[in-house]
Fold this sequence. Notes:
It is a single chain. The mean pLDDT is 92. The protein has a single domain, classed as Aldolase class I (TIM Barrel), CATH 3.20.20.70. It starts with 33 loop residues before the first strand and ends with a helix. The relative contact order is 0.18. The chain contains 10 helices and 12 strands. Strand 1, helix 1 and strand 2 form a beta-alpha-beta unit. It is α/β, with parallel strands linked by helices.
Amino acid sequence: MTIIALGVPSVSRRVGPAPVGGPLVDTYGRVATDLRVSLTDRCNLRCTYCMPAEGLDWMSGEQLLNTDELTRLLRIAVTRLGVTRVRFTGGEPLLAKHLEEVVAATAALRPRPEITLTTNGIGLHRRAAGLKGAGLNRINVSLDTVDAEHFAHITRRDRLADVLAGLAAAHRVGLQPVKVNAVLDPMTGLEDAVSLLRFSLEHDYQLRIIEQMPLDAGHEWSRGKTLGADEVLATLQRHFTLTPDPAPRGSAPAQLWLVDGGPATVGIIASVSHAFCSACDRTRLTADGQVRSCLFSREETDLRALMRSGADDDAVEGAWRAAMWAKPAGHGINDPDFVQPDRPMSAIGG
Length: 350
């Protein structure tokens, strides 16, 4: 069994200016319906693959979109650009004081988008019910290991119990399916993958294992120092019977496998080794109001400056459309001239 690579678009590239209406399309014909919104670059963990132990220089409050600016962009995305799914990320989005307010404003939009959240889970046990009440549909919790010692090494914090409490609370209030996102440590990751899958099966969570990507603040990522999807899959197959999920994958980043005949699944997101750029349907908004057409973009479009200069919705929409129209064919990680983005993952959003 192998992981399917969806590569880069093979269709002819369109030329000319971006369309002024209709779906949020790029020159390869891909339509962006999934908006990833970073609410803050701050985080209360210091994961080794993301940021240094001392943290980073955080954005100032003035740099960040305020609530009115953010809700305006969400309205434009949903009502004008055809976005049907909104995922709030960070940094750590639970550190954003306006999270519930923004979720509720998004839930009030028509047509109503699906609303999800990616979080490290710290503090989630106190806020899961409130987020559900505000309109959050489901949740992804980042958890790279269920071994307390490994967790403390990876995150540089002793907070595993808090994350587990957050997961349980999310499941209890109905933020389902609860998904667990794991980026495996190169030293302990294969052992952790097996334990994570057993843990997820036991608690009715859905595990998604994500290849480590070149988005660390120190730009120290090296292909030879990370675990590839094929190696992870082979390890899991020694402990579980995995068969490909027959359901169409569509634009989902994870290729799914039925575990021991199903219905439980495990997903592997092979962003590096088996790219799925040809099916990408995502557009990204950073906490400081920059549109990114790709997670690995080295160019951004400043919607914050447009709004603060008095631009109307037509102008903001046009700038967003132009940014996505120029989306590259693929992320280019495997190209010999690939250059890592200046921003780390915490400043871009997942």
